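[INFO] parsing input record for thioredoxin-dependent peroxiredoxin
[DEBUG] input buffer:
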Amino acid sequence: MSTYDVGDAFPDFSMETPDGGTVTKADLSGAKAVVFFYPKDNTPGCTTEAKDFSALKGEFDKAGVRLLGVSKDSPKKHHNFIAKHALTVDLATDAEEGGLSDELGVWTEKQMYGKTFLGMVRSTYLLAGDGTILRIWPKVKVKGHAEEVLEAARGA
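[DEBUG] output buffer:
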């Protein structure tokens, strides 16, 4: 699925944040980072995942790890998602076409109820301070995922 592997340099990116700013790969440099891709704001699995990462944000901070959640939802939708669920993780909006998720291969054809469509495959990347990929979780199952990522980040 992913076109990148452990040991590769994470691709450069620039994405809009809910407050109208931007976040880039350079913003994540110097410390470990977790970039998690999720399909859609305010859906059950995505809400649980964002809330789980938010609940552990203090622990990620203590471990020196930055968190960034990414979907193709608009900055306004992200803003509402954050407010509705009191999220503390940073979110960013990937480009509709040709964005980071496309480059990584996590925006791809999916099937549900016999229909084929393009969608985000829930995936997480753990990055070293120099932007090298330390670990990839493809096709994430939400339950226990944030805790597993935290343990891996602490040990990396």
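[INFO] The chain has one domain: 14-155.
[INFO] shutting down worker
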